[in-house]
Amino acid sequence: LTGAPALPSPALASSALASAEASAPPLTLEATLPAKAAEGLTRATPIAARRIGRAQGVALGLTWLDTGDATLAGQGLALEQPRRGPRRLLRTLPAPQAPWRPGSPPELLETIGAGRAPDQAEGEPLLPVAGFAGTATRFALADGVAALLLKGRLRAVAGEAPVARLTLGGPPAAVIATMRALAEDLPLLPPRAALAEDARALARGQAPAPRRLGPPLLDPDLGTEDALVLALGHLTEVLLWHAPAAEAGRTPEGVHQMRVAMRRLRSVLRVFRPACDGPSLRGFDARLRELAALLGPARDWDVWLGGLGAEIEAALPGEPRIAALLRAARQTRDAAYAALRPALQGPALRRIAWDAVALVETRPWRTEGDAEAAARREAPIEAFAAGVLGKRWRRIEEAGEGIGDLPDAEFHALRIEAKRMRYAAELFAPLWGRKRVRRFLDRLAEVQEAFGLANDAVVAHALMASLADRAGRENAEIAWAGGVAEGWALARARRARAKASAAWEELLRGEIYWNQY
């Protein structure tokens, strides 16, 4: 054991890895779990049922070093020093446009002799940043899978924190199947950050640096299939990054950002469906849809309370019936968060995470799709993207310019088409010139904002109806205040209709950025 928290090669694990399929290199997956859950993990039923032989544990100490101004961390690197043996230079943050699989352990870049500094330190002296003290326990599981359980404490001048990581290595199919099976009963998720990055963040008194945020950045040199894989890995990391804030519910931002990541991820699945489809991707989308249904109510109430609810409260200060409405709204929002938390704490989120890992690693659409889809995967990504965007744009154009007087149902359907257009255009934006793309996306953003304001009346009606059911129809205060809220939203929505119509016409008259195809 070299002191690594992951299994960078079969040599680190037991001889079980020797049985890995000759046709595929061994796969290593890393998972994090609460420190309390790691106690007695090797005896837990999901592990014990698969374990072969006895577990072997050793004491482990690690120290991470960097320059005084964090030169290595700024490059997404960490220098790890075990108690014995050479230093290890690790990549802890993936390159912005590099494909990335959630659950990937840090990449070993090179080993460096004791007392030496890597070139990336630029000649600056190295200082200890933080350390780890604990145990590393190795054990073999069925189907040639080797496991390494790390548990102990991160230590820095700023404080200490318990930590536990489980790493599985071996034949890819067996590793993935084992991790998914264990995650049904154990709280195993891909780590949001490498152990070294968690240690650095502890020492600095700040949050770890996120691996991915925002939309994925597609490289024009990527193939169509590789673009999907990059987007899947990227957006799963974003989803996992925001999950703790969504679970805590202390601010609206966690649920909001998690919902945005969810929508982008589902949009990616739809966008690439002509080239990559099948039961595995459809099943993954179904899991996303189930979680989205829980995120929606929490987000709707956050938006209403921070927007229309706050406006009405400011316009009618001290009105007891409005105060009663707001209290009921906050209680309903709290109930929505309470309904969401079991999904984020339990198997639902874990299934999504490890399903995404399985999709990225195994690419099941190759065997589940047809010949036409395989041919589309061979097309250059710009050509594929232009075809997708052109098809969605034609749906936009079919509506024409006179949308201001559309019935609510048709107006809502058009809003959905505009939203889908924006997610697809945003996804493929890095493939074309920045200036033209930015103008198009700005026009789409104006359309979406105006449509959202115009849709407030529909949302307010549904929310007020749910409050009436919760409070009881006999509650006159809630009924009166709910009517005020609906009328307020309706008045604002009617004004927003004109703005939405103008923004729509501006969008139709503007230039599209993929017309060279």
Description:
The chain is α+β, with helices and mostly antiparallel strands and 517 residues long. Helix content is 54%, strand content 15%. The protein has helices at 35-38, 45-48, 71-74, 172-185, 195-204, 224-248, 253-271, 279-315, 320-345, 347-362, 365-368, 371-377, 381-398, 408-428, 434-454, 456-471, 476-509; strands at 27-32, 51-66, 77-82, 87-91, 107-112, 127-141, 145-156, 159-170. Strands 1-8-7-6-2-3-4-5 form an 8-stranded antiparallel β-sheet. Helix 7 (253-271) crosses helix 14 (408-428). The chain is globular and about 75 Å long. Residues 1-22 have low confidence and may be disordered.
Rough outline: globular
Tally of helical runs: 17
What is the terminal-to-terminal distance?
55 Å
Task: Give the helix/strand class.
Answer: alpha+beta
Measured as a percent range, the helix fraction is 40-55%
Poorly predicted runs are 1-22
Order of helices and strands: EHHEHEEEEEEHHHHHHHHHHHHHH
Strand segment count: 8
Features:
517 residues, alpha+beta, 8-stranded antiparallel sheet, 17 helices, globular
Task: Provide the fold topology.
Elements: E1 27-32, H1 35-38, H2 45-48, E2 51-66, H3 71-74, E3 77-82, E4 87-91, E5 107-112, E6 127-141, E7 145-156, E8 159-170, H4 172-185, H5 195-204, H6 224-248, H7 253-271, H8 279-315, H9 320-345, H10 347-362, H11 365-368, H12 371-377, H13 381-398, H14 408-428, H15 434-454, H16 456-471, H17 476-509
Antiparallel strand pairs: 1-8, 2-3, 2-6, 3-4, 4-5, 6-7, 7-8
